[in-house]
Amino acid sequence: MKLLFDFFPIALFFAVFKIAEIFQLQSFQLVSKYMSGFISGGTIKPDQAPIMIATVVAIVATTLQILYVKLKGRKVDPMLWVSFLIITVFGSLTIYYHNENFIKMKPTIIYGVFGIVMLLSQFVFKKNLMREAMEEQIKLPEDVWHKLGVAWIVFFAVLAVINLLVAFVLFKDNTGAWVNFKLFGMIGLTFAFIVGQTVFLSKYIEEEKA
């Protein structure tokens, strides 16, 4: 359930982009009418409208996530605050400079920040964030917690690099293809990694039940 919650802005970004791409003329008119005051030079090209609208929606969606958690009386996860800050900053730059490269950098920045935070926590401050998050659900040997933390650090680093390659090399001039990968590719990789992690931990889960 949390995974679906985390990917909500990405899915919404994808859906809005695709709809705006289909109705490009209407999207262009919408941006020209309501967003020109936030754009450097005041005008954009019609094919830039879909990414502009999708970016606004992603910022709003992340804001709503935080409001939802607050209304539920729960503490907002620090990682959600990081996501909100990065999407707001890089999304705003995308809109103002009408340049999709800023929003394309956002996944790499987020995964990079997550990876660095976990790296510093585990190796400098001696605090394993995966253990902090999962220890109530499962008991693991110390060396397994260490391996699990390292695995997530490496995974975030790999995702950060993959996004750069897809956005600026493989689909350098195809924003639509990058948007497709951002949803299906990133979710697919994350799901595969979690499945692999579950298989790896299944032995310890069975031992605990026994």
Provide the fold topology:
Layout: H1 2-6, H2 8-22, H3 24-34, H4 49-71, H5 78-96, H6 101-123, H7 129-134, H8 142-170, H9 175-209
Explain what you see.
By secondary structure, the chain is an all-alpha fold. It folds into two domains: 1-99, no CATH class; 107-210. 79% of the residues lie in helices and 0% in strands. The chain has nine helices and no strands. Helix 5 packs antiparallel against helix 6. The longest helix is centred in the last third of the chain and has 35 residues, at 175-209. It is elongated, with a radius of gyration of 19 Å. The mean pLDDT is 92.
What does this entry show, briefly?
With 210 residues, the chain is mostly helical. The protein is 79% helix and 0% strand. The protein has helices spanning 2-6, 8-22, 24-34, 49-71, 78-96, 101-123, 129-134, 142-170, 175-209.
Q: Please state the structural category.
A: mainly alpha
CA-atom Rg in angstroms: 19 Å
- The DSSP helix count reads 9
Helix content: over 70%
Beta-strand percentage range: under 5%
Number of domains: 2
Oligomer category: single chain
- The number of strands is 0
Biggest sheet character: none
Low-confidence stretches: none
